[in-house]
Amino acid sequence: MKTLVLTSLTLLFAIALIVYPQAALKASLRGLDLWWEVVFPSLLPFFITAELMIGFGLVHGLGALSERLMRPLFNVPGCGGFVWVMGMASGYPAGAKWTADLRKNGQVSRAEAERLVAFTNASSPLFIFGAIAVGFFHSAKLGFLIALCHYGGNFLVGIGMRYYKKDETSLERASRNPGLRNAFDTMHSSRLQDGRSIGKLMGDAVTKSVDTLLMVGGFIMLFSVMTELLKQTGMIHLVSHGLTWLQIPYNFHIPIVSGMLEMTTGIGSITATSEPLLAQLMLVSFLLGFHGFSIQAQIASILASTDISFKPYAMARIAHGTIAALLMIGVYEIYERWSLESILPLWEPTQDQIRSLMLFFEQNGPPVTIIMLASMMFIKVKRNREKTTHYQRLS
């Protein structure tokens, strides 16, 4: 039955591509523009830096220092603090990638990795303040409300996940001497154990990061096309009828379905409606926590190379979206009752600053993407030649 269903869906997708080739091409190009203008250049520095930090042992050293914070709060080793902070700063699916790396290196157990991946994948501040607050809502002030609910919900999900398989033993025990000297010793021994030279480590950081981002780009384009084909065939209207029993306004039906597939598209459609602002903010908060099936597919692909189960992450997405939407009710009530408009600009960038930053990505993103892709190809070709030469000498 599973084979029949999957085959039928793939066949229908192929037929839709043939029937609506122009719409599919435009949707694919929209996904490509998003990837090479914003996603690739914004995530690549974080990915490369994280690879270097792991190789140099810095993550192990920071883990020794943050063990006493991460273990009581989230029941994960101290090295999870690095994944948590970097995941929030860089955006999805960075947290899943670094959690998978920690699992492959034996720094976390399977249960700890499943707890960690459930709350370390969040939207970046650039996306919340730039794309959503300014780009969609045309108000930088709302970015603070959305960010507060999003990261607050993420924190509460992490607290709840500490009870997931809480009786399983940990691979990493807290140090009795969690001082700077112990952290440096841990970092030094980890670097020696890694054994790679600086050149080899930098090459690995570039190739691994670019490979991961190529996969991310493929998923972005795929789900962009799928969403557009659902609109062209009218299937999205059939799916949206299932939201009627939830008493959700009709204007939100298609945007919610679009957002469940590809988050950015759905959020843009929600903010284009004439429904009350609070309802829009609640649904946007839910979609940010749910991530959309496009991002979930990216994370599932990353986790597939490990023994980390996808189910805890998927359940946490529903919880995160629901908690963030409920938090928005209380936060928005405080925002309106206490007239915080005069205070919030102290906590967030101006609209002109965010627009100039987004314009910078649009102008400089594509060249950076092309240069890094060329660099990755050069490194891989060079390594293949070195391997071929080595094998020839042995023979």
From TrEMBL:
Q: Which residues cross the membrane?
A: 42-62, 74-96, 116-137, 144-164, 212-230, 242-261, 281-304, 316-335, 355-379
Cell membrane keyword on record: no
Q: Which UniProt keywords apply?
A: Membrane, Transmembrane, Transmembrane helix
Q: Which domain of life is it from?
A: Bacteria
Q: Which InterPro entries match?
A: Spore_IM_YlbJ
Protein name in the entry:
Sporulation integral membrane protein YlbJ
What species was this sequence derived from?
A: Halobacillus salinus
